Amino acid sequence: MGTAQRLRSVLKDSLRRGEPTPASQKVPRSGYRYDLDGLRGIAIAFVVLFHVFVGKVSGGVDVFLLLSGYFFLGSQLRYADRADSSINPWWPIWRTLRRLLPALVLVLGVSMAVIMAWIPKLQRIEIANQAVASLFYVQNWELASQGAAYGAASSEVSPFQHLWSMAVQGQFYVFAIALAMVIILIRRYRPEYSAVRLATPILAVLTSVSFFAAIVWYFVDQSINYYSTFTRFWEMGLGALLVLHGPRLLINARTKSIFAGVGLFMVLSTGFIMDGAHTFPGPMALYPIIGACLVILGDGRVAVFLSSKFMRWLGDIAYPLYLWHWPLLIIFTAWFEMDEPTVWLGIAVIALSVGLAQLTHKYVELPMQQQGKRPVFRESRSAEALKKLKTTRPAQVRAFAGVAVFAVAVSLTSSPQVLYQRVLDAQSTNLDPYTYPGALALTGLQYPQATPEPDPYVLADTVSPAWAKGCMSVIDDDPNELPVDKYDPEFCTFGDPTAQLEVYLVGGSHAEQWMAPLDALGKMHNFKVIPLVRQSCPTFVEDLDGIFSEDCADFNELVIERLEEVQPDLVVSNSTRPLLEKGRGIDEVPESYPTLWNFLEGQGIQFMGLRDNPWFIQPDGSGWLVSQCYAEEESLVDCSITRDNFYAPVDPAIEELNIREGMVAVDTSRWFCPEDLCIPVIGNVYVYRDGNHLSDEYAQSLAPFIWDHMRGLLNK
């Protein structure tokens, strides 16, 4: 019998007898690494400090993810190596939920309660959706779908932004449990294969592919790259490989001491020499990750320091500290109406976060954790658990606490619907035209002073009628389908559906925002309005600017075909826009726009081009919520821009359109910028829902002005 056959026979016999796999084949076991608790604590502490005072990514979260792979998958594979391991995944799932979920639900519940009661600026549907996504450990994908770049603390940032890393960690835990279950199943039939032997090639391949994907996606979409579980996997996978093979490395004591010192320096210096928000999890993330690996492989004085009582305490509260600090920072910044937190606010937030973290750890985390050993093959603990629930007070208290956690979690899932209903209620409320004349105030109409409406914080979540009804194609929709074709023909027909006159609204969201007044005018003057609109997609025959997506070009092919087929009485769209993609913020006629006008002229189709409304852009490129600015500052000057900051001296579309028969350029600038100031409130009505889209209420008040230009084209 050969050596390999003898080894296989020994392994089989030992497993049948319940004996352990030979040590050389097993996942390495060592004494508990208190120094790694300290490493976790100091990594999270630096995350908090950099979030509060620096506004940069410190690399601490990357170290946290590495340690998650090291600890969690290591424990799962050690169990899989046992001859009596159970293939039932419920216990590790239940244990993990009991360890993580109570503190998370507490933070989410308290944060949402405070927001709903006192912080209107944060009462946004997107934030409520993020709370629910965090609860189900998919916050990273929610942020990616919202296109939310990871930003420094401010009153505009989500209080749950930081929970993307918890979602990545949770998804990795599901993978780790599944991998362990598969290995246990394989070892039922092939006991000679150890967990190390089975897991190593899988982890090596997935970790390598993930690292390569992180490099590629840095150039494709860094926002998605930053949040993606697939591009983050290599950090956790490397930790798992380290727990499998690191203890086998023979390193002398002096080298270990050097490793630990150099590694800790690399971990702590990351945030000072780079900003991971712009580069992680690509190759630059190797710097803190390798540093953490060196600490894990190291020893000596650094390990003694990290194992000290204070550092171990910091490691104990690291998880609740991470949960608490960011919501507190954002909530207090918004509460005190600051653009960004001050030093004194930051100090107060850190002190409060540490206190709440200690209380959460002592009274929530520890009591709710699963203390019993993991059950083995064919061992059932259901009867014992029920008996304890009936007879012992600690078990009953934990059960009541579990019910409370479940109740709070269920209430959190309803928060988006609560905010959405507020939006629906606001949109169904008609403002008194005497008190809220909107644009009619520009004609000299006298009106009483009143608090502007509608609620600017609810307004930020509203969309215009076509978008709200699902009759607008959004970015994730199939560009090869017109939304109007998905429904009954009259469903996406606005105005008077029975009318003979047809008006088609085409373009992007800046065209679709005119649907409210066009709908009202259609009902009043007997014409139907049909939207062929797509988010971030102005209508053209050919993209001559090179800034619009391929999906937009595909969608526009369908639009042009439909216009040629139906020959509408009038087409309405925008005639100008700023080319921010090319660094130009003054409105102009993009080269692509006249390709549509040439087509319509050739078809004999009339066209009305509406000059774009002002875009309020902050220095970092994000939209400026000017209506909320006015609600907080009550200053037109502080919440406005001058006319020449956006508009060219003369409407750039006039020269192109007014020379064409049946076409008219409408200079809308005087509707938004009385005199030289583009202001957020006109006639007691908020003009903008966000930084560049009109509120329906103000757009509707412009209906008489629009009709003055339309009536001649429709022969009315």
UniProtKB/TrEMBL annotation:
Any one GO BP annotation for this protein: lipopolysaccharide biosynthetic process
Transmembrane annotation, as ranges: 38-57, 63-80, 100-119, 163-186, 198-220, 226-245, 257-274, 286-306, 318-336, 342-364, 397-420
UniProt xrefs under InterPro entries: Acyl_transf_3_dom, Acyltransferase_3, SGNH
GO terms for cellular component: membrane
Entries under Pfam families matching the protein: Acyl_transf_3, SGNH
Every SGNH domain range: 488-706
Keyword Membrane: yes
UniProt KW Membrane keyword: yes
Superkingdom of this protein's organism: Bacteria
Single GO MF descriptor: acyltransferase activity, transferring groups other than amino-acyl groups
Domain Acyltransferase, chain residue ranges per copy: 34-359
Protein name: Acyltransferase
UniProt organism field: Corynebacterium deserti GIMN1.010
Lineage, highest ranks first: Bacteria, Bacillati, Actinomycetota, Actinomycetes, Mycobacteriales
